[in-house]
Amino acid sequence: MSEALLASTHGVEAVRPGGPADLVALDVDPFQIRGEELGSIVSALTIAGGKVSHTSL
Predict the structure, then answer these.
(1) What does the longest C-alpha to C-alpha distance in the chain come to?
(2) What is the per-residue pLDDT for 28?
């Protein structure tokens, strides 16, 4: 899981001024579920380009 997360974030490790700030808040912690359950994860909040583009909160 850690390798997949690192690959999907292109090595970005922190949000910082002037850096990329897109964010997804998931409904569950992907590190706390079984691999076969990953497909059931839902985005609770998505921020793209500094603007909320989806929310289920």
Answers:
(1) 36
(2) 93
Q: Which amino acid is at 23?
A: L
| pLDDT in the model for residue 44 | 92
CA–CA distances in Å: residue 49 to residues 7, 27, 36, 43: 20, 21, 31, 16
Cα dist. 38→6, 11, 44, 47 in Å? 16, 21, 15, 21
Tens digits of per-residue pLDDT, 5-52? 666 666 566 666 666 667 889 999 988 998 889 889 998 998 887 788
Whether 47 and 23 have beta carbons less than 8 Å apart is answered as yes
Eight-class DSSP state of 10? T
For the chain, the domains span 2-55
